[in-house]
Amino acid sequence: MQKEGKGKEEILQILENKLKGDFSYETGYILGSMCTTPLDFGKEVYMKYLDKNLGDPGLFKATADLENELIAEIGELFNGKNIIGSITTGGSEANIVAMRIAKKVRPDIKNPEIIVPASAHMSFEKGADLMGVRVLKANLKDNFELDMEHFESLITKNTCGVVGVAGTTSLGLVDPIEKIGRLIEDKNIFLHVDAAFGGFVLPFLKELGHDIPPWDFRVHSVCSITADPHKMGLGIIPSGGFFLNDRSILHHAGFEIPYLAGGGFKHFHIVGTRPGGTVIAFWAIMKYLGMEGFKKIIKQCMDNTNYLAKRIAEIDGLKVAAKSVMNVLGITTESGESICELDDEFRKRKWMLGKFTEFNLIRVVLMPHVLRDHLDRFIEDLSNIVKKLDIS
Length: 392
Ligand code: 0PR
Description:
Elements lengths: L7 H11 L21 H9 L12 H17 L6 E5 L2 H14 L8 E5 L5 H9 L2 E5 L9 H6 L5 E7 L11 H8 L5 E5 L7 H6 L14 E5 L13 E5 L2 H7 L1 E2 L9 E2 L9 H37 L4 E3 L7 E6 L6 H9 L5 E3 L4 E5 L6 H18 L3
Parallel strand pairs: 2-3, 2-4, 4-5, 5-6
Antiparallel strand pairs: 1-7, 6-7, 8-9, 10-11, 11-13, 12-13
The chain binds ligand 0PR.
């Protein structure tokens, strides 16, 4: 560390230079990210309240109340009643919290197992590693749908939890949550839905008239949901969400910090100190956009998704991996040839996409920062790459 402090202008200039290597959303090159730039109004609100610490709800009781109000409102959006939960650092933390609860509510199981679809996010493996739970993966069929027979065959007396994904990381597909619910009925098994991405897409798609099978608390057996503000909620990075339908679980499985907030306050968080600013910002974003605001954003994203799908269909040698349900699109080769070289070529041209080698697809996420103009540039490059690599 240097002895004397530098001037603000100088520091800002140094930072500007040092951070030049980062990609920025507005260029359109970030085409495979599930995050986007937060809504401007959200940033404004966040800046105003960034010193609030929800790790100590004794000091910031009003912010804690606001968080509960926000959770309840989102819970209603997910067709639940009296939903509790918290804004987390992201979907990974929310999924790990869910896994911990699934294990905790079944102390009778000595070797607990949680069944997840093969498409489930890495966070379930992290959780398994951290808490000594085995994660069993249910196969997908050739069309990327969950193989329900295989899923069912994995359920045993060791199963403490099952997971369905509403908006898979690779393709944005939605698992048949009702069917999963039926498999575990009356079995005292915890059902968690990972809607980290889809949580702030599906309710608005439904309002836009899309046929969306029940995936949320409308499905009786669903116990908890992950849904992230920092993905399609346009919230501050990082902010995820965990939503639970049974308050009584908090009393016997919540952590208690006896010296804080006068004691008696229980929570599920993994972290201690927690931002209040991200919570307040998302409360404000929801008030500001309302149902109509979110619908408009999702419609634009879906229009772009359909546009890209149409343009891909025009290119010989390539196809979409599956019909998009939401604003995620997989590109694969018609012949089954590997997409790895394709991804390398994209990266050389600065297009940042997601490469899923296990499914042989490249993921495009049509986030709100992606514009038609970016897509036209992308398609032009794509056509040239296909020619160069002689994909047919
Ligand atoms: N569940 C699902 C279905 C997800 O897709 C993700 C992350 C998570 C949980 C975990 O969420 P957090 O990353 O908030 O903990 N999905 C993105 C992905 O893996 C995360 C991401 C976001 C990656 C932005 C890159 C990026 O630029 O693609």
